[in-house]
Amino acid sequence: MTNLAYDSPVDGEPAEQEVAAMQALRPVPRISVQAFCETDGVAQPIERAGEDRRMSKAHLKVHMGGVATAIEFYQSAPTPNLIVLESRSEPRQLLEQLGQLAEYCDPSTKVVVIGHYNDVGLYRELIRSGISEYVVAPISMADVVSVISTIFVDPDADPIGRSIAFVGAKGGVGSSTIAHNVAWAMSTLFNSEVVVADLDLAFGTANINFDQDPAQGIAEAVFSPERIDEVYLDRLLAQCSEHLSLLSAPSTLERVYDFDADAFTQIIDTAQRSAPLLVLDVPHIWTGWTKATLMKADEIVITATPELANLRNTKNLVDMLKRLRPNDAPPKLIINQTGVPKRPEIASSDFSEPLGITPMAMIPFDPALFGNATNNGRMLGEMDAAHSVVHTINEMAHILTGRSEIKAKKKAGLGDILGKLKLKKN
């Protein structure tokens, strides 16, 4: 018997603990779900669950009316994979109604009941009669997705890898370079298998940065979706280091790379079953497939430089992603190439304030470090492991794998300044 409802904020946005609960849930497979609700308090979280990215493959329809409406409906319609029923009826009447509904249900159809009686005896009787789960109202959106996932996701299935999408607010801000270096850091720091997918088929730089020249890569997969499985994908991967593999882009203009919105979905799903961490290097374009890729990623990292056009583009991205992913945490922000000589820059506080996001990292302009690494086909950590930028990259790897959190930088107060002066005196 489940009752995990969360308090929702007044403005309708998901509560912080609900967002955290949603992050832990696995995607629901391609199933059909029909809900029959008696109250708006139950119908609304079910509708919101149907709009969440974790339910993107499922087809969910909400009807108003409880068990009686469902009985009438299924007298002339086939039953779906899952029926969700809300009932305010007392236990004995509820059991009688469910008995009537069973006459019209396909044996393979699962049923979840949302009731208003916190009764252990009722719960046991419902489970004995074949009901998959009994949930006590009020419910949250996370409750709905969790119950459906528990029923239809095999608990013995291999865990699905975490996808992290890196995208630049503008071309040339260094998003790809940071994505590749963070991926390398995650693979070396944690000895974890990492796959990097370069989605910029025309101008991708991952093969240069990792000093690779594979004969095949992501183009073969995206143009032959019928062949994609874990064995085929494994043949397309180039081994960059002990724990890091690359799905490289051809980086040629011999063909035009126009794709449908779901062109990369199967590749990403298959790669997530192959490795615990998948880094998606998303190009700075706005198309149906880049939008779909960002919408479905577990984590999004936006890289920007401290200029006005970058601030505008970052704000547009953050606002759009908030609408597309209302039940997820906001994207992470990296402010890159700070301190360029003679270039007017927006202060980090002025950049982040309109976004409502604390930057995950601020990376200074260092053309020698980055240029030497690129020209040698090496990662920053291979060139100078003690460099402060490498320490920042390592911190980002910890944050993006959930090993640490973003810490707001404290401004130096009078006590800090006096303390430093005293140290200098001594």
Could you list the spans in which at least 5 consecutive residues all have pLDDT below 50? Answer: 5-11, 410-426
Biggest sheet details: 8 strands, mixed
Second rung of CATH, namely the architecture of the largest domain: 3-Layer(aba) Sandwich
Strand content of the residues, in percent? 15-25%
The CATH class of the largest domain is Alpha Beta
CATH superfamily assignment of the largest domain? P-loop containing nucleotide triphosphate hydrolases
The CATH topology annotation of the largest domain reads as Rossmann fold
Shape: elongated
The structural domain count equals 2
- Class of secondary structure makeup: alpha/beta
| N-C termini distance | 66 Å
Number of beta-strand segments: 13
Radius of gyration: 25 Å
Mean pLDDT: 89
Q: Report the helical percentage.
A: 25-40%
**Total number of helices:** 18
Trace the largest sheet across and list its strands: 8-9-7-10-6-11-12-13
In terms of topology, how is this protein built?
Layout: H1 16-23, E1 32-37, H2 40-50, E2 59-64, H3 67-74, E3 82-87, H4 91-102, E4 110-115, H5 120-128, E5 133-136, H6 141-152, E6 162-168, H7 175-189, E7 194-198, H8 206-209, H9 218-222, H10 230-236, E8 238-241, E9 244-247, H11 265-274, E10 277-282, H12 288-296, E11 299-304, H13 308-324, E12 332-338, H14 348-352, E13 361-364, H15 367-375, H16 380-383, H17 388-400, H18 414-425
Parallel strand pairs: 1-2, 1-3, 3-4, 4-5, 6-10, 6-11, 7-9, 7-10, 11-12, 12-13
Antiparallel strand pairs: 8-9
